[in-house]
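Hi R.,

Here's the chain you asked about this morning:
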Amino acid sequence: KKFLASLISTLNNSEKMEMVEITDRVLIESLEKKLPNIEVKELEQSIEELQKLLSLWKQKQGRFQPNNRKKLFEEIIDLCAEIYPHIVNITCKPFIFSSPLRHGDIEIKNLRIIIDSSTFIQALKKEQDFAFETNKIRRDNIIHQFRVFLLGQYFLSKYEHIVNWLWEDLWDFLPRNFQCKEHPDKEKIILGVWALASLFHDCGRGIESFYKNLRGLKACFEEIFRIFEVDMPAINTDMQLNDLWERKKETFFKLLEYFMDRGEKSKYYKKIKSLLERAIENSNHGILSALLITYAEAGPLISRWNKKDMQLSMDISADEGTDTSNLAKVRTMVKKSQKATGEVISKVTLPFYSALAIAFHDIEEYWFLTPLTQFLILCDNLQEWNRLTKLGDQSIMIFPCEKIQLDVERKENFCIKVQIFYREREGEKSELEREIFKRWNPKKRWSDFKEKVKAKQTADLFELYKNQVCAKITIIYSKNGEEKTIKISIP
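And here is the predicted structure, written out as tokens:
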């Protein structure tokens, strides 16, 4: 009886949440603790520089005041442009990318986004500054991406079972003869694919915004051109891919087919492919961001892997009983060829695993596709604290999410528990404040998310819902001086 009472008490205590309040400082300090564990000699200088920049970030965060938000916002984005190349250099380059990638007559060039991420962030800043001046609605995506990375890194460093959850899916995705369940660099590889997915998941927003504004511009002026009987200049508002991006698209869909060719997933390949092709036509920022980190030259290599090396392996298996003097040599040659191909393919599939999560992060009802997709969508939606938002001609303001608190509960898989605190100013509210809560009402946002997921669970894709994370979201907000609480469970 005493044993049972003790066991029940232990279980009850384990159910209690030890909520941690999430701030930039908490997340950055978590990253600072992680950096010395990277242990790559060539990265020592980059790690040292990054630590200085992270310290500067913490100092700036303590200076947020209503009268200096816009100036500080500019400074922090510039800081992001300095931080990005170091994060990419430390987390992605050693474990996700190799330079150059070669296999026979095929050479795969490094991604420009990885080589020159600082210039890329500055270009995004230029587009975002323009959007803040001209668009009726705009939210920051640059600082947001970095905070999404920090939040996910915090989860990974604190909860080993989240690393294992992602790794089990990833290693099954790698070429068969390159799978290694206990890889010595497991944690570093997971951090790398997470960094790639989080730091670049909204990078296609500028292209999406361009085509959206172009369509609006054309619709707005068509009538006036007709009245004046003047021919309107030819404006192609459909997304057009050049040769480079056509090859990126080819690589992406070949890898998608390879990924979907497993058990129950195979029957959904055409459905998923069609969904993504429509997303490209509509210049959806998710798939554009995904193609940005996809190799352009890997299509022929993937075809060779599927059709040549795999076929050689099957031919040798069929000849097991044949007594041929050259058979052992042939087997050795094929194994070496497969190993070489597998190593290159693995370097191609790792960024694709991140790209697949990015492609679906904006199509939330498909969050079940991979654990990394689920993880990205959750961290993306949870990152609201201190996020800058602009509506109409109003000045830029911080979105009124004061803080989040979180805990992770280990069950059959695991459950992320989050408390989200929103502030509504007492008294009469400005039109801006009312519009912000109308558009981004936290209750509506998470409830809609739940309904999207639920609809797909009960449809023909139900069988793919397995090994997924549970999220229990508690939204705490004040209304008319009274504190309100809403609880939402997903799925």
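One quick note: Confidence is low (pLDDT under 50) at residues 1-17, 307-318.

Cheers,
M.
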